[in-house]
Amino acid sequence: MGIADVSGYVPAYRLDDYLTRETASSPDVSVPGPDEDAFTLMWASLTGLPRAEAEGPVLLRVPDSDIETRALVAHARATGVLGEPAAVVPLAPDAGVPDLLALATRLAQPGLGLLVDHRRPAGAGVPATASAAAAVRFGPPRVARVAAVATRHTLTFDRWRTGPAPDQQDARFVEEALVAVEGDALLAELLKSAGRTAADLAGVVVTCGARLRGARWARRWEVPAVWQAGGGAGGPGASAAHALLTALDRLCAAGPDGAVAILDLGWGGGGAVLTAGTDAAEDTAKPAASAATTARDTKAYGLAAWHGRATEAPGPWTSPAELWREMPALLGPVGYRCSDCGGIGFPRAGVCELCGSFEVTDQPLRRTGVVATHSVDHLFDASDPVQMVVVDLDGGGRFFGQAVRDVPRRLVVGDRVRLVLRRLHTASGLPHYFWKVDLDG
Ligand SMILES: [Zn+2]
């Protein structure tokens, strides 16, 4: 079993100067936009994978999510990015890449792995960890082979029982105990199990609770490079999607003979060695992970709601029954086609809006199109007025909805746009997802 396909999504928002100071973060940390959450990151990563009608088991790790696993899967199914899963296996919020790979390599049939890093800072002064999502289809090793997986379970507390437990975020503790003790042993075990030496590695991707001095560890382990994905903060598993995407990126750059190790260190830790897949031998220039990642120009935005500076108006009413009844068609999105006049409309209706005919059938709609018209509501009490857009969809039908909150500029008539899934609002405690309009490309 190996990695057959991979697709990643890295939000391209950036913290502004004020928030960089507030959260003690570096300005290049990617954080989700105001209307992106764990599910929308996961959904965006899934859109880059080839479609499958039926999936094997889906191994899913979504931290800090207030939406149930089964609801996540239902939403992904309704939008067509996920086939019918054989089973859904939720992983612990701190599960890292080695945990996912260890499970995947023991699957009896090819499955799907979904890792989401959605970790908005808990408050002012808490460092932000970069967010990302990775979708992996396990099967023939086209992208990478899993050459070795190892775990190390350590009774670390015993060493410290005469004093208070050390802070796992403390950089000195992380470097001197976790990385030096567990990292060394784990890496040696992995290399032995993979039948490789440190000289074979293009580098090591490390996830732990602190920012490491990469050059120092590269010298110690005698490897060309040590990378930390996602800014280093947050602890084991915090940057799992970032770590996997980084490892596959570097593996791709290393070429047909390449190998990359991943270490996920907490109390003990897990690790894996990935070697180049079969595609690397055929086309070394083929990007593995980076091609599917979306990037946008640096843009600052305010986490006003997170800071408690914005107040949310009471949301609209919703209910599970309403979601059950309406969402499959709205999320499809599915409109209607009139067999009398040939018109296509959205949302789905029992009567044609154009000619009044009752001869209408369901019509799946495309998610790309051109802006027909738009408006910006300055009367509604909002610090950042939302642009409302009408889109003539490719293949027919009109969509009316909001522009995404982080669109780089106001949309204008004639813009090529695409529909992206976003959290619209939370009502009656239920997250409500719908399409918004974003610039295409
Ligand atoms: Zn009609």
TrEMBL record:
Domain of life, per lineage: Bacteria
Protein name from the UniProt record: OB-fold protein
InterPro entries to which the protein is assigned, alphabetical: NA-bd_OB-fold
Species in which this protein is naturally found: Micromonospora echinospora (Micromonospora purpurea)
Lineage: Bacteria, Bacillati, Actinomycetota, Actinomycetes, Micromonosporales
